[in-house]
Amino acid sequence: MRIEILDENTKKHLLEDLLKRSPNSYGEYEARVQEILDTVREKKDEAVFDYTKRFDKAQIDGTNVLVTEEEVQEAYAQMDENLLRIVRRALVNIEAYHQKQMQYSWFDSKPDGTMLGQKVTALRRVGVYVPGGKAVYPSSVLMNVMPAKVAGVEEIIMVTPPGKDGKVNPTTLAAAKEAGVTAVYKVGGAQAVAALAYGTESIPKVDKIVGPGNIYVALAKKAVYGHVSIDSIAGPSEILVLADETANPRYVAADLLSQAEHDELASAILVTTSRELAEQVSRETDRFIQELSRGEIIQKSLDNYGHILVADTMEDAIDAANEIASEHLEIMTADPYQVMTKIRNAGAIFIGEYSSEPLGDYFAGPNHILPTNGTAKFFSPLSVDDFLKKSSIIAYSREALEQVHEDIEQFAEAEQLTAHANSVRVRFEE
């Protein structure tokens, strides 16, 4: 990995490079995506099945687009029993963590005759997109579905691309069953997003779409926002490690590569105050690449978006971390908790040398659907909140309104909204 001195110039160029990976930078795909969305909106099932045949080479129609219970049981028979046990253990952790996020309705009554409150209601139906093809991500199923289940969503509709044989990966299906998905449909890509957003003869319209996908899925979600809600526009994976001279270079290198292996656009960055550590980590990454199965992808990722930045002080390193606002942030310093208090922008923060990033991906409990491309400055991880909506409650008695009606009328008249003022005034006419 290349080693650079951290200064304003290197930080500026780094941020510019990282932003190039955003789905917002791939405008040439937008017209194709919009064509798919428009066609599905008009032709519904017919378009969905045509696109599935064209892109996934699978013969899907109204008789087999919905995964049957027999297919689910067949998936269980094919799934590794030990992996199923691990999935169930992870689910316990994920559910317990998200239960602590749950919000409830509240009401506040006062003796003067006023009652204010907030009614919290779960969304009725949500859609979960799960990637297919060669990639199999049962962890993504768990992370997208469980907060919706905890929130109390009635219907969770999952879509995922089928293989050429018209089947869904058995591990994905079993994970969906364990997490509590209502129905699974064999459709992927932008056409799946369109089906969820607009509804077809076979696939019901949902209130919100969540889950990661390729550039077509990301742009389709962006385009249908407004017809439905979405979680976020997911970009390539990222990790930033903050470290000082006390860090173990082998651990740091291993953790950087854990994200670089996702794809060639993934970003892996070390910011350290130790030149010696920087050189050791660079050597360790070279060694690991020779051993790991996805070494070629890792190398391209590091060549494009891998950086080791050497800072003068830990304060400078922390400032850089807050500017980059990485999806995953690991802190490996002599006093990681003290450093953590100064972090403002990160999707998930991993503290100490034994809190490696895959803990968050699979098992610990916090959600691994995280803000990318610097959006951790204003977005949060997927949570129970994403599946709840809130309504304000206002109740005044005549006596309570009488105390304030003249103030309201004056406020409305100051804005020249006389009908607003009249709406209150008529209640106190002689």
Automatic annotation (TrEMBL):
Binding site for substrate: S237, Q259, H262, H328, D361, E415, H420
GO biological process entries: L-histidine biosynthetic process
Annotated NAD(+) binding sites: Y129, Q191, N214
GO cellular component terms attached to this protein's record: cytosol
Regions that span the bilayer: none
One Pfam family linked to the record: Histidinol_dh
Family from the record: Belongs to the histidinol dehydrogenase family.
Protein name per UniProt: Histidinol dehydrogenase
Protein's organism: Schaedlerella arabinosiphila
Name of encoding gene: hisD
